[in-house]
From TrEMBL:
InterPro entries, per the entry: EmrE-like, Small_drug/metabolite_transptr, Small_multidrug_res
Location of this chain's protein in the cell: Cell membrane
GO molecular function: transmembrane transporter activity
Protein name as it appears in the record: Quaternary ammonium compound efflux SMR transporter SugE
Organism: Methanogenium marinum
GO terms for cellular component: plasma membrane
UniProtKB keywords: Cell membrane, Membrane, Transmembrane, Transmembrane helix, Transport
Top-level taxonomy: Archaea, Methanobacteriati, Methanobacteriota, Stenosarchaea group, Methanomicrobia
Topological type in the membrane: Multi-pass membrane protein
Pfam families: Multi_Drug_Res (PF00893)
Major location category of this protein: membrane
Record-annotated membrane-spanning stretches: 30-49, 61-81, 87-106
Amino acid sequence: MAVNAWLSLLVAGVMETGWAIGLKYTEGFSRLVPSVITIALMAGSFYFLSKSLSDLPIGTAYAVWTGIGAVGTVILGMYLFGESRDLLRILCLLLIISGIVGLKMVSAD
């Protein structure tokens, strides 16, 4: 069922955001607990991405997965690490989000 595939893809994207942020905390995989959590999130992200591929085209799923991860990582980077919140940066995020929504809208369910 396509709904479950999209839900799996959403979970995969959120987990991708988690492992991308986790990399910052691993300090080059020299800290045990953040490293274990980051690796678990990586594995979970790939697992849920692979589950979504049973019903979704690979190109769409991969683009949406990376888009969710990119947007989530940038937003958390702003919040957690004080990264730039410039208007142009926000507009670029909105372009990525519009691409994700567009791919969802044109993908056959």
